[in-house]
Design brief:
Layout: E1 4-8, E2 14-18, E3 38-41, H1 62-74, E4 78-81, H2 94-111, E5 115-119, H3 132-149, E6 152-155, H4 159-164, H5 168-180, E7 186-191, H6 208-221, E8 226-232, H7 236-243, E9 251-254, H8 260-265, E10 273-276, H9 278-281, H10 283-294, H11 298-315, H12 323-333, H13 352-364, H14 371-384
């Protein structure tokens, strides 16, 4: 099979593109980083043959879903389970969250691998009025599932709390109760509204400087219960400033899929650890880069990760919350799953031009190891948009 395709370009015309394939040999396994704590937020694989309606009653392909988590562990990352990358609140039914957490934790415990899981309040419908006590109970129930299964808790931002809280005190009251119940320190999660518009004004308003003070107060008063905080605001300068104000021993897990190489590398005043959706897509390359960072080889670290930034920025371009489509698309192209079908039909959330751009950028970053497979899988995607991609 030829490695050349006809792909739509930004001008609306078809252009010949020949895949170059991976130029760097990357090991199939990596040890965990010695100098950074790093999680990849993993996506969920649907079973398209058993799902009658992907928007109402999706059936998860557990074998493929768990196999992908082993792929992440094989490259030395911890798995961040049941996060927004798994379409939490955007396709993953609350009824299946517990099963996902428990299945993944069993696999992690069996191989003594790292796993942290999102505790949220998605059992509360978005259109339901609730009290702070209701929100606390929803969080506490999921925290109990996670810790009983052997996972670390990630306290996800809550849509219910965002629409119910009337002051910073309300946020503090709920988080104090949740954190106080835990057996081991948790990771907080500050998710910007570019990832979920229903979280606009989280922590009490649109002023991010004021929100920063509220979060830092929360962390300082619960320092023994907090391992770190994941910040997903896509603002590197704000993250660095926040990182420098954290109590000693509290980690900053970058969630910045635009600026992760420089944030993880850090500066003479510190660095960020990571909990990233992009590491679902680029795990082999990211793991190799981190191993070079561990060895002090900064030039090779930069060389590996620099081309992935353009890919990540394209995957996470506005509307950012559709980034899951690009993550799953790349898993399909790379042979990590057999189809390009998603929870809630989200495979249709990005255009064929966007997907073609992702293919080019993934290839340019060295992510496509099997070019024949990528071509064979891209052709039917093009055909669905009425494009004969054969060059």
């Amino acid at each position: 099979m030829t490695d050349t395709l006809l792909l739509p370009g930004p001008a609306g015309t078809l252009e010949r593109y020949t895949l170059g394939g991976a130029t760097r040999a990357v090991p199939a396994r990596h040890a965990p980083s010695r100098t950074r704590r790093v999680f990849a937020a993993a996506h969920v694989v649907i079973d398209p043959l058993s799902t009658a309606d992907p928007t109402q009653s999706p059936v998860i392909d557990w074998e493929s879903t768990l196999a992908f988590r082993h792929h992440v562990w094989d490259h030395g990352f911890g798995v961040a389970e049941a996060m927004d990358t798994a379409q939490r609140g955007m396709g993953l039914p609350p009824s299946q969250v517990r099963e996902l957490i428990e299945r993944s934790c069993r696999e992690a415990v069996a191989r003594q691998a790292s796993i942290a899981c999102g505790a949220a309040t998605d059992t509360i419908p978005d259109d339901r009025s609730v009290t702070l006590a209701d929100i606390e109970r929803a969080y506490l129930e999921q925290c109990e599932w996670i810790e009983s299964a052997g996972g670390q808790v990630i306290v996800m931002a809550s849509r219910a709390l965002c629409r119910t809280a009337r002051s910073a005190d309300d946020y503090h009251a709920v988080y104090d109760q949740v954190l106080g119940s835990l057996q081991r320190p948790a990771v907080l999660h500050w998710l910007g509204d570019m990832f979920d518009p229903q979280l606009s004004g989280y922590w009490g308003g649109a002023d991010l400087d004021a929100a920063t003070e509220i979060v830092l107060e929360l962390i300082n008063r619960n320092a023994s219960k907090i391992d770190g905080i994941k910040i997903s605001l896509l603002d590197a300068d704000r993250e660095i400033a926040f990182r420098r104000r954290l109590p000693e021993g509290t980690r900053l897990y970058t969630g910045d899929d635009f600026n992760y190489p420089t944030l993880i590398k850090g500066d003479d005043q510190g660095y960020s650890d990571a909990l990233l959706g992009i590491f679902d897509a680029i795990a082999p390359l990211a793991a190799e880069a981190l191993s070079r960072l561990d060895d002090g080889d900064l030039s090779t670290y930069d060389e590996i990760l620099k081309p992935t930034v353009a890919l990540s920025r394209a995957i996470f371009e506005a509307p950012t919350y559709h980034y899951k489509t690009g993550v799953v698309f790349l898993a399909y192209l790379r042979g990590m799953q057999s189809h390009f079908t998603m929870l809630a039909g989200a495979q249709s959330s990005r255009s064929i031009t966007h997907l073609s751009t992702l293919l080019r950028l993934a290839d340019a970053s060295g992510l496509i190891e099997d070019t024949d497979l990528a071509v064979a899988r891209m052709l039917p995607v093009l055909e669905q948009s009425g494009i004969d991609g054969r060059a």
